[in-house]
From TrEMBL:
This is ATP synthase-coupling factor 6, mitochondrial. It comes from Silurus meridionalis (Southern catfish). GO terms for biological process: proton motive force-driven ATP synthesis. One of its GO terms (molecular function) is proton transmembrane transporter activity. GO terms for cellular component: mitochondrial inner membrane; proton-transporting ATP synthase complex. Component of the ATP synthase complex composed at least of ATP5F1A/subunit alpha, ATP5F1B/subunit beta, ATP5MC1/subunit c (homooctomer), MT-ATP6/subunit a, MT-ATP8/subunit 8, ATP5ME/subunit e, ATP5MF/subunit f, ATP5MG/subunit g, ATP5MK/subunit k, ATP5MJ/subunit j, ATP5F1C/subunit gamma, ATP5F1D/subunit delta, ATP5F1E/subunit epsilon, ATP5PF/subunit F6, ATP5PB/subunit b, ATP5PD/subunit d, ATP5PO/subunit OSCP. It is found in: Mitochondrion; Mitochondrion inner membrane. Subunit F6, of the mitochondrial membrane ATP synthase complex (F(1)F(0) ATP synthase or Complex V) that produces ATP from ADP in the presence of a proton gradient across the membrane which is generated by electron transport complexes of the respiratory chain. ATP synthase complex consist of a soluble F(1) head domain - the catalytic core - and a membrane F(1) domain - the membrane proton channel. These two domains are linked by a central stalk rotating inside the F(1) region and a stationary peripheral stalk. Mitochondrial membrane ATP synthase (F(1)F(0) ATP synthase or Complex V) produces ATP from ADP in the presence of a proton gradient across the membrane which is generated by electron transport complexes of the respiratory chain. Residues 1-18 form the signal peptide. The keyword Acetylation does not apply. SUPFAM superfamilies: Mitochondrial ATP synthase coupling factor 6.
């Protein structure tokens, strides 16, 4: 009887300890990855992303867009305005639906 109780207690303790260890290992792995130096390829990738972010914020749009890009963009916008009846293509359309008039049918 005492042996069975001890066995059940050890099973509960083992499952609780395993959950705690898994959580601690998961958290420490994340902290360890932040603390150590990055892989050179990862570091280069992150540096390029940060550089692109800074460039896009300063330019206010597409990075390294030349006059040919602007020309193609205006041509495409003009083509779309001709196809779809004009309007501001940079703004989401404002939809207005009217309620249908329903007639009551006598039974």
């Amino acid at each position: 009887m005492a042996l069975r109780g001890l066995l059940q207690l050890s099973l509960v303790f083992r499952s609780a300890a395993s959950v705690t260890l898994r959580r601690n290992i998961g958290i420490s792995a994340v902290l360890f990855n932040k603390a150590k130096d990055l892989d050179p390829v990862q570091k280069l990738f992150l540096d390029k992303i940060r550089e692109y972010t800074v460039k896009s914020k300063t330019s206010g749009g597409v990075v390294d867009a030349g006059p040919s890009y602007q020309k193609n963009m205006t041509e495409e916008i003009n083509k779309l305005q001709r196809l779809y009846g004009g309007g501001d293509l940079t703004k989401f359309p404002d939809f207005k639906f009217q309620e249908p008039k329903l007639e009551e049918v006598a039974k």
